[in-house]
TrEMBL record:
Domain of life: Bacteria
Compositionally biased residues, Low complexity: 93-108
Taxonomic path: Bacteria, Pseudomonadati, Pseudomonadota, Betaproteobacteria, Burkholderiales
Residue ranges occupied by any Transposase IS66 central domain in the UniProt entry: 179-460
Name listed for the protein in its UniProt record: Transposase
Location of the Transposase IS66 C-terminal domain: 467-504
Amino acid sequence: MLGTLPVMLMQPQFLDDLSAEQLREMTTRLLTELRHSQALNAKLTHENALLKRMKFAAQSERFNAEQRSLLEDEIEADLAAVCLEIEQLQPAAAAPQAKQQPKRQPLPANLPRREIRHEPDSTTCQCGCQMKRIGEDVAEKLDYVPGVFTVERHIRGKWACAQCETITQAPVEAHVIDKGIPTTGLLAQVLVAKYADHLPLYRQESIFARAGLAIPRSTLAQWVGTCGVRLQPLVDALKAEILGHRVLHADETPVQMLKPGKGATHRAYLWAYAPGAFEDMKAVVYDFCESRAGEHARNFLGDWKGALVCDDFAGYKALIASGVTEVGCLAHARRKLFDLHAANKSQLAGFALEQFAKVYDIEREVKELNADQRKAIRQQHTKPILDALHQWMTLQRQKLPDSSATAKALDYSLRRWTALTRFVDDGQLPVDNNWIENQIRPIAIGRANWLFAGSLRAGQRAAAVMSLVQSARMNGHDPYAYLQDVLTRLPTHKASRIDELLPHRWQPTDI
């Protein structure tokens, strides 16, 4: 709006067609948008200056060498992301500021090369003369197919018309990183290695060095930061689709986050949300937040009202109070009794576990049925088991002192019985929260390699890329093939059709 209205306002006819009330409304709207853009620009500029100070102060911080390497990676990535966001805020007509580019080292001569020629569709000039080829421009990009580095030589022939002195060259399609050396194949490899294989950039730098490629991790970090910004619209679209489902799973896991300037970390959390296990969409979206406060779940879900499968964490209680339907996790209730039985071979816990096993036997049988069939079988077979179990638990609890471990294990189930058994009356609800726990497991595995998230922005970027990587896996796609194709198509893909690139709808280009 800000880019088109000022031009229209300069046209007298346009102003004449507007009433005084319309002019006042337009002025108010333009001022609001301008203030918002100015505030966002000021915020990003401040963050950019802060990151630069952190970058040059990082070596004086009291971290060990490995910690400093991880921090410097994230600062470079954050700087690249912030700079790109500031650039996107600038008016389209504004002339880009010239900045001195560092001289790029030539790619190793021993690498295999593949020539990609770009020539005009026609070499006949508009004046009717046949143009002559007078030269060419060559740009080399470093490509990566798993296990093999190659060089793409993009050759753009120059064609000139002797009659009217016109020079023609075939255009090259837009790239995720304009004028950079990496192809989308190499970018996909760096992202998959970092966010799926949990290889920090300093390790990737060493791997590339062994192949004879001196790619500084600061450069790798800039690529990661830029790709994070470019991929964010996909994650936003994925979140919007997830929130369109009636049944959602939610879970969270701790991740250490660095507090720059203090030389210490604190516990942040990665939240995970996914459509119900019986929903037709397979996807997960991670949300990195500074704490486990319930406000983060409320901010993510917004006005969503549906059935939320979750554990007994207090942070979800405000959502339940606002109209979200709580669906308990039978696996959590079973786990309390399993721990009790494992500790002292409790006969009471053993009997309860046998009843839970009967419920899970039924669930395995109804897994592939539709919701109505699943509900009918649950009503006929599962409900009597759970009703009898509830009555038995209630009687047993009356015989136990409040301080006993058995009483506490029973209280967990009795206190949440309505939520735990809600699946019996709704065939679309799962029996437990294991679906989302399986999607958050890769995060728990990767923590040993991360050590910590370097910043809030770095954690949010990791959450975004990992959302796409894990969602691709859930749909049977190779994350490398998915990211390589999506990064190739994104620069020219219409924003209105972004849903076509989501992991559960994606089709490779060659199909």
